[in-house]
Amino acid sequence: MTDQAERRAGARSQPPQQATPIWRDPRTRAIIWQVLILGGIIALAAYLVHNTLVNLEARSIRTGFGFFEQEAGFAIGESTFIDYRASDSYGKAFAVGLLNTLRVSLIGIVLATLIGVVMGIARLSSNWLVAKLASVYVEVMRNIPLLLQLFFWYGAISFLLPAVRDALNLMPGVFLSKAGLQYAVPVGHPVHPWMGLAFLAGIGGCVLYYRWAKKRQAETGVEPRLGLPLTGILVGLPGLVWLIGGAPVAMNVPEFGTFNYQGGASVTPEFLALLLGLTFYTAGFLAEIVRAGILAVPHGQTEAASAIGLRRGQVLRLVLLPQALRIIVPPTTSQYLNLTKNSSLAVAIGYPDLVSVANTSLNQTGQAIECISIMMACYLTISLTISFFMNWYNRRIALVER
């Protein structure tokens, strides 16, 4: 019998292989477990929703968002971009609270970033005094609870600043007192919206010039000037529109009335206290992130940059920070999210943010589920937006591997 015939005979003599049971297949078992877990989550959510609706109906508690169209009946001491009155609706009140939260969060993020970068670099300074002062700032800010810092700043503004009648005249048209900061603003003019559009166009021009400068630097090795051209574009375009529009210079200057200043614009003590607390507290954490990011760059990079004749400032700006950003950005995103969510502590010092407006609306309407759901949805949307932008920026600066 040949070898081929023997192999055929051996194959016929072997018993047929049995199929693997479905419960022993890893992929099938994983799918079954996922379906069961998802089904359990859906069933639990359905039970909670049904139980909530039954309890609300048993207690004759209204549900739905129809109260948004009802008159709010309460005043809000400070609003952003919206002229609000007590006779307006709850929906408009929520919009004011949301805009107030966004205003203090965005300004706080910008200021905290600037202070954090400066303090983080200062901690690495070769000057002993500068490094120690920066270290003291970081340790103090990071180890005192934010709520206590808010109380401190609010108390400092309330007790250390002079009364309204004796307000500090910081500069012409700018006054600081217990009532907050009052400052002059331009009188409304038709050219102002066009100046705003020119400013946006200037931002676009700055982006294009920056890209051109980086491309030219990569091609020639010569770094074009950035500061003066970017400032000229950003300021020059609105200034040109202002000149074409007649160069209006009329200002609405605050003047002291019977009890307070009238005219101009103002920033309340609550907003100042909240902004200072959020800014200095978050900047302490950002300073440590910046310091750690710079130290994570191999020291050989610094030595190589110094060897080719770069000054210390150029080494930091052109070599260390661009590489450190890849380490700095992810934890910085978390601090931005923390700052935004920590703004909800504004209710402790009376700043009318989203939480404060929602609490007042909840007490008046009794619709707790709707008010809490709105707060959760707003903070979730803000946090996801910040995360999306920071993740996009992190991918943009990431090293491209071949």
TrEMBL record:
Region annotated Disordered, chain positions: 1-21
Keyword Transport: yes
Main location: membrane
Membrane topology: Multi-pass membrane protein
PROSITE patterns, per the entry: ABC_TM1
Ranges that cross the membrane: 30-49, 104-125, 146-164, 191-210, 230-251, 271-290, 371-393
Signal peptide span: none
Keyword Signal attributed: no
Subcellular location: Cell inner membrane; Cell membrane
Domain ABC transmembrane type-1, chain residue ranges per copy: 98-390
Keyword entries, A-Z: Amino-acid transport, Cell membrane, Membrane, Transmembrane, Transmembrane helix, Transport
Family note: Belongs to the binding-protein-dependent transport system permease family. HisMQ subfamily.
NCBIfam families hit by this protein: HEQRo_perm_3TM
Entry protein name: Amino acid ABC transporter permease
Organism: Rhodovibrio sodomensis
Lineage of origin: Bacteria, Pseudomonadati, Pseudomonadota, Alphaproteobacteria, Rhodospirillales
